[in-house]
Design goal:
Protein name: Carbamoyltransferase
Number of domains: 3
Radius of gyration: 23 Å
Strand order of the largest sheet: 19-15-20-14-13-21-22
Mean pLDDT: 94
Structural class: alpha/beta
GO molecular function: transferase activity
Low-confidence stretches: 41-45
CATH superfamily of the largest domain: Carbamoyltransferase, C-terminal domain
Pfam families: Carbam_trans_C, Carbam_trans_N
Number of strands: 22
CATH architecture of the largest domain: Alpha-Beta Complex
Keywords: Transferase
Strand content: 15-25%
Domain Carbamoyltransferase: 2-323
CATH topology of the largest domain: DHBP synthase
């Protein structure tokens, strides 16, 4: 059974392919089109069809469109309410509904040979739920979905048993934790449906002094839902335009909303556990990318395990819809094998790209050791290895790496990427070394979706990755899954005594993560990076010879 999943509504268009119950490919369209989040200048053209990523998924499996048994589309226009019913009064909804209704026709045009009758609509939050509950390592689990909005809801709570979803609660619009956070993101001068993680970072610099008032406005209800009235954030801090400097008041507002969101999510998770008693909770939806909230759910609710979909945002619904439809067609689906589901390149293909670029390169005996040496000398390395990651986190396949022991490297890395100085970078650490350095969050933590407390004696040794509040968003590395990354970490520790390396995504501000060798060469050429490690090859930055 061959099922292609498609997300092509709101933002983050993506495609995923499930063959005989196994996830074989998944990728966001932005990695191909180079338009971040799939957004174009005009709002009504933001719903980009993932033509390039869908074609690649099929090519990766050696399939043609006519070979597909089904195409799963992660939005059901028949479930959309009227503007009066949703309470959002969104002028784009009528066009979204029309666009989604014509999705079979659009997909048949984009993938010649596809029978449009094979396109199946999947409720948006069911697609999110499947991306977590069916992809998680455990077969039976509770599932909690929170995002901005689907057709008529912003939330789903349920459980998976033997691959079947039982929905226990859902929050109807206009109430939405995701839209609330989007409004705050916009109020603070950032891009909504894109920069919410910046608000989470800013929150760590503030004090939640508005929490009392917000706690009376944003509340969980006894039916497993919540209430989020419209809030005029100007009552707490002035509105910012993009690029305008923020103040302590803005950080306090971010901290207050962040804290209240955490508290409501805890209430929702506890309500769900009371009804299921499950050991494992699977999370999806854009709100599930909130690492601070995820850690509190792990540490302060009865769930013993919390698994977060690494592509928790709308891109992940492409995968979830494919898994859901495959199950409906009688397949037994397999858990997600890892996040490295995107494009990969052979050594020969990489060499050919380097030769075409007429760039000097070398093939060291051990690329991991060569990288460790540059890092130990406080160089910055662009690391391009294996298949690209599905989701927003760089997990050792498309990364910028640096030495974590120099406090100035945080500013340096943010300068390289051209982004705000309050933004943190993450530590990468071998799984077996993590517990001596990091605590509170779950271990292992392979997808960088939780925050951990940094042990006091280590915070002074790895200041680059220790955030202002003493936490870090870590990625643990399993040597059996990532032998090359593990060897690089070991070589670095042998030189420095530090088992941690700085890891952040291989891109610059406003650009999607690097995906293919040409992207890597362009990024290396435009950013002050000392070494590009691409497959088994390295490209070194040539320093200009000064006159005299």
């Amino acid at each position: 059974m061959k099922v292609l999943g498609i997300n092509a509504i709101y933002h983050d268009p993506a495609a995923a392919l499930v063959v005989d119950g196994r996830i074989v490919a998944a990728a966001e369209e932005e990695r191909f089109s180079r338009r971040k989040h799939g957004k174009r200048p005009l709002p009504w053209s933001a719903w980009e069809l993932p033509e390039l990523s869908a074609a690649w998924c099929l090519a990766e499996a050696g399939l043609r469109p006519e070979d597909l048994d089904a195409v799963a589309y992660s939005f059901d226009p028949a479930l959309m309410g009227t503007p009066e019913e949703s309470g959002l009064d969104d002028p784009g909804d009528a066009m979204r509904k029309m666009y989604a209704e014509r999705a079979p026709e659009f997909l048949a045009h984009a993938l010649p040979g596809l029978d449009p009758a094979r396109v199946r609509f999947v409720k948006h939050h069911v697609a999110h739920a499947a991306s977590a509950g069916l992809a998680a390592p455990t077969a039976d689990n509770s599932v909690l979905v929170l995002d901005g909005r689907g057709e008529a809801h912003s939330h789903l709570a349920g459980r998976y048993t033997d691959g079947q979803l039982e929905i226990l609660a859902g929050q109807a619009l206009p109430h939405s934790i995701g839209l609330l956070y989007e409004e705050l993101t916009d109020h603070l001068g950032f891009l909504r449906s894109s920069d919410e993680f910046k608000v989470m970072a800013m929150a760590s610099y503030g004090t939640p002094r508005f929490l009392g008032e917000l706690s009376e406005l944003i509340v969980a209800t006894d039916d497993g839902g919540f209430r989020t009235p419209r809030i005029d954030f100007s009552d707490y801090a002035p509105r910012l335009t993009r690029g305008e400097d923020w103040t302590a008041g803005h950080a306090d507002l971010a901290a207050s909303v962040q804290r209240r969101v955490e508290e409501v999510l805890l209430d929702l998770a506890r309500w769900l556990h009371e009804r299921t008693g499950d050991r494992t909770l699977a999370l999806a939806g854009g709100v599930a990318l909130n690492c601070v909230a995820n850690t509190r759910i792990f540490s302060e609710t009865p769930f013993e395990h919390v698994w977060v979909q690494p592509a928790a945002g709308d891109a992940g619904t492409a995968l979830g819809s494919a898994l859901h439809v495959a199950r409906g067609l009688g397949e037994t689906t397999e858990p997600m094998p890892g996040a490295d589901l995107g494009r990969g390149w052979s050594d020969e293909e990489i060499r050919a790209r380097l030769d075409t670029a007429a760039i000097e390169y070398e093939r060291p005996r051990d690329v991991a050791d060569a990288v460790a040496q540059v890092l130990a000398e406080n160089g910055i390395v662009a690391w391009f290895q294996g298949r690209s990651e599905f989701g927003p986190r760089a997990l050792g396949h498309r990364s910028l790496l640096a030495h974590p022991g120099h406090e100035a490297n945080l500013e340096r890395m943010n300068d390289v990427k051209g982004r705000e100085q309050f933004r943190p970078v993450a530590p990468m650490v071998l799984a077996e070394r993590a517990a001596e350095i990091f605590s509170r969050g779950p271990l292992p933590s392979r997808y960088m979706l939780f925050v951990h407390d940094v042990a006091e004696e280590w915070a002074e040794r790895i200041p680059t990755v220790t955030h202002v509040d003493g936490t870090a968003r870590i990625q643990t590395v399993d040597r059996t899954e990532e032998p090359l990354v593990a060897r690089m970490l070991e070589c670095f520790e042998r030189r420095t005594g530090l088992p941690v390396v700085v890891n952040t995504s291989l891109n610059t501000a406003g650009r999607p993560m690097v995906d293919d060798p040409r992207d890597a060469l362009e990024c290396f050429g435009s950013a002050p990076v000392d070494l590009l490690a691409i497959g088994p090859f390295v490209v070194r930055r040539r320093r200009p010879t000064l006159p005299g």
